[in-house]
Amino acid sequence: MNIQTNLNKAFSFSFVALTATSLSFATITPVKVAFAQEEVEPPPPPKVEYMIVPSVINEGMNGTWNLQWKANGWLYKSRLKMDGNFGTMLVNVTGPNGRRVYAEQQMNMHPERNGYTLQGNRPTYPGSDAINRDYQADTFYVELGDDGRWRMKNCSDYSGCIPVRVTQIN
Fold first, then answer.
1. Are 78 and 89 in contact (CB under 8 A)?
2. CA distance 7 to 115
């Protein structure tokens, strides 16, 4: 063997080694594959519903009360029964000519700046679901007086508010 043959063998061996090394690097080199991805929004969080339970505006109003006021010659006598912020009121009205009107209405208590209102709605004939068109729903305003006592006025469109006499039954 001559030097030329040894050089050729060395060259061939180097070339084979270089090729093998390149192939081995080529197989090891990680290939980054890119896919087109659509951007997806995460699902919204579940809805949480909060229940607000209003507190009783004036617990001292619970129970049964007699109310009396006079407007435009008509005498109004009623019995109000409250339980929390809700109640029922039966009204007996006598006109100056002796005419009588009876009504029943549901009452709702609403907070106001210096007290609260008792708002009547849907006056009916007592013991019936029939609407009494001869009677207008009442609105009472109740406020705390300077003496620490509650004062009630009927503000149901009498061109001003009318004082109401209130007596607790129980």
1. yes
2. 112
* Environment class of 88 (CB within 10 Å of its CB; exposed 0-12, middle 13-18, buried 19+): middle
β-strand partners of 106: 88, 121
Mind listing the pLDDT tens digit for each residue in 10-57?
Answer: 545 554 444 554 444 444 444 444 455 566 676 766 666 554 546 888
Tokens 């659509």 correspond to what residue?
38
- Where is 124: in which H helix or E strand? strand 115-124
pTM: 0.66
Q: What kind and span of H or E run contains 88?
A: strand 86-94
Nearby residues of 104 by Cβ (< 8 Å), 6 or more positions away = 88, 89, 90, 91, 123, 124, 125, 126, 127
